[in-house]
Amino acid sequence: MGTNELTGMVFNIQGYSVQDGPGIRTTVFLKGCPLRCLWCSNPESQTTPKDVLYIRAKCVKCHRCVNICKNGAISYNPDLEPEGYVTVNHEICATCKDHVCVQGCYESAYEDVGTPMTVDQVMEILEADQPFFVQSGGGVTVSGGEPLLSHEFLRELFKRCKQSYIHTAIETTGYAPWDNFKSVLEYTDLALFDVKHMDPVIHKQLTGVSNELIHSNLEKVFAETKTQVVIRIPVIPGGNDTVENMQATAKFMKKIGAREVDLMPYHRMGMGKYAGLGREYPMPPGVETPPAEKINELKAVFESNGIVCHIGGNH
Amino acid sequence: MSTQVSQHAPKAPEQMPRKIKLNFDPNGKMSDRFKKEKEKLFAAPARLDVQKLQIETDVYSKWAASKSYSEIKAMIFDRLSREKKVWLDGNPICGHLTNFIYGGYIQPWRDSYWIEDDKEFALQRGVHKTTEEERKIIQECGKFWIGQNMQDRVRPIVKAKYGLDVQKLVDIGLGLNFDDDMGGMVVPCHRTVIERGLEDVLRQIACVKSKCKVYGVQAPDPTAGQVPNENTILTSVSPTSDYKKWHFLCACEVSIKALIHQAERYAALAREAAASEKDPCKKAEYEEMADRCSWVPAKPARTFKEALQAQWFITMGDWQNQCMTVHHAPMRFPQYVYANYKKDIEEGRITDEEAIEFLQFWFLKVNTQNFVMNPELAIWQQSRIAQQLTLGGLDPATGEDGTCEVDYLILEAQRRAQCPEPLLSVMYHNKLSPKFLMECVKLIRTGIGQPSFHSQEVSMKRRLLHEEGPIEDIRDQAVAGCVQSIIGGKTDGTWEARFNMTKMMEFFFSNGRDIKTGVAYGPAYGDPCECKTWEECYDRLYKYYEYWIDICRDISTLEWNMERDHPTPLGSAVTYDCVERGMDMVDGGARYNWGDGVCLAGSVDATNCLAAMKKLIFDDKSVSMEKMVAAITANFVGYEDVQNLCKKAPKYGNDDPFADELGRRLMRDYAEIHNRKPDYMGRWTITPSAYSVTAHWAFGKKTWATPDGRKAGECMTDATLSATPGTDVKGPTALIRSALKLIDPVVYGSTHFNVKFHPTALEGEAGAQKFLQLVKTYFDGGGYQIQFNCVTQETLRAAQKDPDSYRDLIVRVAGFSAYFITLCPEVQDEIVSRTCQTW
Ligand code: SF4
Ligand code: SF4
């Protein structure tokens, strides 16, 4: 395939992202992820094919969409709630070409998740935002999902960014074959690299995969590339928020030469999307954003190891 | 005293930019004393003061035949200054606008609603029910004003000339403020009062009078002897003859002396209070008050406190002459009081904490300003008096950053006090210090919606496009009105009617009718189905714009010509170069002209209408013109499929060239049509304007369904560059890029852009810095004005449910900060639903 035809399955392009690297950034979200983290706030990004999100709050329960969808993916469920709602079979949507429900619902209760975009199309948006980058020392961040699943597209996009003097960042789980990873890093200025847990068994429980590949890739990024790295740790109450785990992470960081970490407190803002995808929210009920004292306690662990530690991504 | 024009550049060159030295507690709170005074003021009931109505009616009925208009205005003010009630309260700054803590005056010459048997009058904060006694006075006076007020004078002429009923045009939502919200708007030179004192102005008047030839040789009309043509008829302005100058100058003298007299009455009161006061602390304070009031505004202010007292006296006096929105704003206030502040600090007379409290007391005075409205009008006027206070800006003499300590103190005073007025605005330029800008963010974070930002560069370019002047004047840009810019103290104020962009869509689809009533207005250019191509369709629309913009200009020009019968001698006396030229500003005496022409609202709605029409009817052909006409006429009832397509058509605010380019074309055409005629004095400084205040709401209510998918009666889009709620799905950088394209702010006199921020976007130093970088990119791209609402939707919803606990909540509605709970429910809903940017 020629580089011009390469497409990425983009599910959102968000201007003025202030949490995803230095300056004002435009974040490109790509669909598809090999991990299944319990706390994921972008569940629509986990599968690769196009999908639709059903936003119940907008739905007025007219049930027109049941007939609009020619694939029979939508059914009317009078028992669901007092007034009845529609449910969507997302497996059918994954193979749907036209997504007529999105145009067809008068209340805009369906949203497209995933639009195949070429490198040119994405570049057009990034170049339009470039004045904001220049002003603030910002640039593009590609997030996901796991953007490395689309490594060919990503490499080409970043190559073009560098030709246009745009700072490039990737937000990654680090879970990808090293060769794919390395080919992208050639054009990557900054990697926001997730480290979720130091224990391989617990890591698997929390994310569905073990952490060996992730950790070996992280070592290699330091050993073999010039890309700047910031470690990101989602702080999950009852998941990875122990002082011991943070201590182990700090030790590992020191060993490989990582000097900067962002603690990202857990939040529940993605909860509504699970409902929109017809899925259960995987986090146990009652888990809330950790209090500031807790975060500060964990921050102190890193600082006592001489590691620069930020809370949140806006710095 | 020479009559030379004083430029008022700082005398001794100070080192620029200034080194800012501040000494106050950044976490400080309101003092108990101030808090008490603030609560007292905001709890005070709205009252109507009929004393001035009686005086005004009496003077007019006795003297209209023998005195000039200037003299009549001066006589009214003179009597009011002698007869009105004066008293002291807990505010160390003296002077009450009316006989009540929070009272307003009827302006009988302006409109006629008050003569009708209305029992209620609206002020900016509340409604006054008239008593039987007041009713009697109003009815008695009203008899005199029937047929004598502006509306009664303008409307018959419009009817005779165009066959149009002005009230009907308002009722169907075509426009607003044809003949009500006007008046010779004063933006006086506060420096004159603070630095020179009014006695110096009296000396200057005497000097000009001594050169005045009163024997009445009238200068010839410059067009005399020429065969008149369309152009000369429009532009010939009768020059002012010397005896008129004499009258004007005499009126200035009387007005100034009247104001000094009012000040002296306060001085006497304070002296008495001091004499009988036992508490030595209070005694000393009364003595100081007496001292100040017997010195200013007659003589140059010697201290910071005197400067503020002088500023309040002239503002109060001017508002007693004419009260209306945006009138007599503080302009570049920090610049005017800086010298006094600096001297006080150097000589140890004041601390920054004291200065902050005194500024807050002055804020309270500003919050007593108000004008009385028809309660019906008040619904869309909202709680605005628009006392714009300009921070930042350039130093006129050096072109360096003009920011001084007082700018910081005002930000801090407002952070602690949270008053709806004055409205803080920053004249933005690239030399502003990062520290100052961070302080601005700190205030924005409180959710007060202040300060807004205005571009110094665009303001200067705009002025240079129309007028010549020394660079010191051109640099001296202040924010005025809602979102406009002017040269403070040297400019007269004109502004014309407001125009509803989307009404033309309705006329297009209905062949010139108001759909709701079925009544035809103006020309009918034919069945829309005749339009076979997009260009034909646009041309047809253009014709409607052409006709109606011209009508709005004509009515405004007529109204303004009559406005010349209502001069403002006190305001003119302190506005360059009215005294020097012996002309009131309504006759063109000021050095510069504001020239705010017919102001459009609904630019974004109109853009979205064009985009939907072109896309659906002509490009995709998914809806035929016949079907669109039927759908619009039926208010989309039974045509939900069409409405759905309309709603999903391209929308402004997403950097989508399809929508943005159509809008830009319309805005360019509007400006071109608008600028075909000069203003009421033949001046070509008049420019189209683009802001909504709350007109988008009033117009929306009266406009039928539109092809952007909006149903009849629904609110239109706020401001003129903000996106329709929920349609800017690409985020703020795309929205800003669209905004930079839609309206050329150098050609237009204003643009208006509200962006709502969730407080999380401003968190921390990094959040603030990125926010400022966003602002800077907007200005570097040529943007003119932007303002931010930083409140959570939760807060707003809670305030709707429990207004009592949220009395303090201020939001910026379209150019104005207002207490959220004082807005009508519909406007509240609109604010809550405005897309909340939670990045
Ligand atoms: S999703 Fe839309 S079309 Fe379907 S029932 Fe809800 S409102 Fe009706
Ligand atoms: S995406 Fe396709 S299959 Fe799924 S609901 Fe919509 S129209 Fe039906």
TrEMBL record, chain A:
PROSITE patterns: 4FE4S_FER_2, RADICAL_ACTIVATING, RADICAL_SAM
One Pfam short name: Fer4
4Fe-4S ferredoxin-type domain span: 50-79
Statement: the UniProt record of this protein carries the keyword S-adenosyl-L-methionine: yes
Tree of life domain: Bacteria
Listed InterPro entries: 4Fe4S_Fe-S-bd, Aldolase_TIM, BssD/PflA/YjjW, Organic_radical-activating, Organic_radical_activase, Radical_activat_CS, rSAM, rSAM_sf
Cofactor needs: [4Fe-4S] cluster
Coiled-coil annotated residue ranges, if any: none
Domain Radical SAM core stretches: 19-308
Alphabetized UniProt keyword annotations: 4Fe-4S, Iron, Iron-sulfur, Metal-binding, Oxidoreductase, S-adenosyl-L-methionine
Record-annotated membrane-spanning stretches: none
NCBIfam families referenced in this protein's UniProt entry, alphabetically: PFLE_PFLC
Entry protein name: Phenylacetate decarboxylase activating enzyme
Originating organism: uncultured Acidobacteriota bacterium
Automatic annotation (TrEMBL), chain B:
Record key words, sorted: Lyase, Organic radical
Annotated positions of the Glycine radical modification: 815
Domain PFL residue range list: 32-711
GO cellular component annotations of the record: cytosol
Pfam assignment, any one: PFL-like
SUPFAM superfamilies, A to Z: PFL-like glycyl radical enzymes
InterPro entries per UniProt: Gly_radical (IPR001150), GRE (IPR051215), PFL_dom (IPR004184)
The protein's name in its UniProt record: Phenylacetate decarboxylase
PROSITE patterns (alphabetical): GLY_RADICAL_2, PFL
Gene3D superfamilies hit by this protein: 3.20.70.20
